[in-house]
Amino acid sequence: MQPDKLDGEKLYVQLTNILLARIRSGEWRTGRQIPTEEDLCKGFGVSKITVRRAINNLVMEGYLEKIQGKGTFVRQSPSRTGMPMKTSLIESVFLPGDSGDISVVERKVVHSVDDEVIRRMGPVIDRDLFYLERIQSAEGVPVLVNEVYVPLRVCPEIMGWDPESGPFFEYLRERASTKITAVSQTVEVGKAGERLAGLLNCRPTSACMVIHRLFTSAGDLAVAYSMTTARGDRFHLDSEYSLIR
Predict the structure, then answer these.
(1) Distance between CA 19 and CA 14 in Å, rounded?
(2) Considering only 106-115, 156-165, 185-194, which range has the smallest mean pLDDT?
(3) Positive or negative CA dihedral for 227, 229, 232, 234?
(4) pLDDT per residue over 146-157, tens digit each?
(5) pLDDT of the residue at 77
(6) Alpha-carbon gap, residue 101 to 82, rounded angstroms
(7) C-alpha distances in Å from residue 126, one per residue of 2, 60, 111, 152, 215
(8) What is the rounded distance in angstroms from the CA atom of residue 229 to the CA atom of residue 239?
(9) Higher pLDDT, 168 or 199
């Protein structure tokens, strides 16, 4: 089975389901090393970022495990309770509350990023990215810290953004050379850590909700990556769902 580029479903979603079917059918047994990214790209006729997103989906779901220096292996199928759903793209998805009391902590061009950003965005050829960090407060209390990375080649004008220009992602969508067509989101629980605890006015060990969002184009190319760290005692996430018929 091959991904169908004419299908309305995103290529990385199709590939995720294809790889998952191989695991569930036993074709890829527990403990087996799966083919390399290069082999999967050739075998399915898709880009590296599509393969990486499919693999990362299965890693996050617990079906695959990456071992440094060795490769990616099939894990024992996880026992989970839940219901997979797709959401409609609504304005509030861009930043939880991209309005209200938001202050800019830092904005700059960076030439290197940590492994987590590379893993989620895929390879960024020039490694020149616009970095933005903001704090959102409610009633004078810091609630969340939002960090955003945008490849400069996607939107050279992004350095011209300032709070007076309007909401950040509205500015990005209007000026980016590549249109944002999809947003994938991962929500997990973590700890604030020393640096963010200072910004959120909480303890480093305080529980936080961490929201990862990858904004992509129709070709599965990364347009932006956003990580929001929110205080667990001051934040809630509302989602709007649409049935896919």
Answers:
(1) 9
(2) 156-165
(3) negative
(4) 999 999 988 888
(5) 57
(6) 35
(7) 31, 27, 8, 9, 18
(8) 17
(9) 199
Query: Bridge partners of 140?
Result: none
Which residue, among 222, 175, 211, 244, has the nearest Cα to 53 in the 3D structure?
Answer: 222
Domain ranges in the chain with CATH number 1.10.10.10: 11-74
Rounded to whole angstroms, how far apart are CA atoms 178 and 167? 18
Nearest to 120 by CA among 191, 204, 57: 57
Of the options 3.30.2310.20, 3.40.1180.10, 3.50.50.60, 3.40.1410.10, the CATH number for the domain spanning 91-231: 3.40.1410.10
Helix (H) or strand (E) run with residue 95 in it: none
11-74 placed in CATH 1.10.10.10: yes
Give the residue with greater pLDDT, 9 vs 24: 24
Three-class DSSP category at 224: strand
The tokens describing 49, both together, are 């970022």
Residue 8: pLDDT band with limits 50, 70, 90: low
The C-alpha atoms of residue 65 and residue 87 are separated, in whole angstroms, by 27
